[in-house]
Please model this.
Amino acid sequence: MRLENKVTVITGAGSGIGAAIARAFVAEGARTALLDVNLPAAEELAAELGGDAAAFEADVTELDQLKAAADAVSERFGGIDALVNNAGIRIVKSFLDHTEEDWRRILDVNLTGQFLAAKAVVPHLITRGKGKVVNVASIAGIGGRPNRVAYVAAKFGIVGLTRALAMDLSANNICVNALCPSMIASPLNISLAEDGEIGPQWAKDNLARRWGRPEDVAKVAVFLASDDADYVTGSEYRVDGGEATGLIRAGEMTI
Ligand SMILES: NC(=O)c1ccc[n+]([C@@H]2O[C@H](COP(=O)([O-])OP(=O)(O)OC[C@H]3O[C@@H](n4cnc5c(N)ncnc54)[C@H](O)[C@@H]3O)[C@@H](O)[C@H]2O)c1
Model:
C-alpha cells in the first residue's frame, strides 16, 4: 500500500477525477479528506469509501473555509501529508464571447483556488516535516486550446505556480508537481465522450487511441503523493495518452 499512514486532502473530490483520486488513495491505505463545494456529493462518496474517508465543505475561493476544513481534517486524522489541488471549472466560448466575469471566475476558482488551498494546507505539511502537493493542471496548461482563453490562462498559471511553489517549499521537504490530463471522460465532458461523432473522433487524437479515464489520472496522483516521488518536484506530468507529444500531420499516421 503506497499511501499507508498518509493523510490526504483532495479538493473537488465529489466528482470525476477528484473522486477517482479519492478512491485510489483510500485503496492505497490513505485517510482521505474529500473537500468540495458540493457537500452532498462528497458525503455520498465518503459513505461509499468508509471510515478512511470524510467529507468537508469548502469553496476553494474562500480562504477561511479552506483553513477551517484543513484544521478539521488535521484534528480528525492527525496531521496532513498531501494536498491534491483538483477542483476546477471550465467555460467554453470564443474570446469575443468571454465576459470579464467569465475571466475572473475561471481564474478565481482554477488558479487562485489552488494558491488558497495551498495557503491553508501547507502549514500542516510543514508541521509534518515533509509533504506533497499535486496540482491538477491540464494539457491546456502547456499548449493553447480554442475557445478557452480563461481556462488556458489559468492552467498555464497552475504550471507556473507549481514550479515557483516547488522552489519556495523545497527547504520544507515538500514536493510540488502538476498533473496535465487531456480529454478525460469525467462528468465535465462526458457529453463529448458520448457524442456519436465527437467521441470516436477525439479518441483518435492521442497515441493510446482512446479517451482517458479518471482512473488514469488517479494512478499518477498516487505516485506523486507517495514517498516514491521524493526526488520528483517542480515537474509537469502529462496524462494524455501521448496527445501533446508532438505534431502529426494529416495522413502521417494511420489509426
Ligand atoms: N475532464 C477532463 O478532461 C480534464 C482534463 C484536464 C484537466 N481537468 C481538470 O481536472 C479537474 C477535475 O475535473 P473533472 O473533470 O473531474 O470535473 P468535475 O466537474 O467532474 O468535478 C469537479 C469537482 O470540483 C468541484 N468544484 C467546483 N468548483 C469548486 C469550488 N469553487 N470549490 C470546491 N470545489 C469545487 C465540483 O463540485 C466537482 O465536484 C479540474 O481542475 C479540471 O480542469 C479535467
Q: What stands out?
A: Residues 7-186+213-239 form a domain with the Rossmann fold fold (CATH 3.40.50.720). The chain has a mean pLDDT of 97. Residues 100-128 form the longest helix (29 residues). The first strand starts at residue 7 and ends at 11.
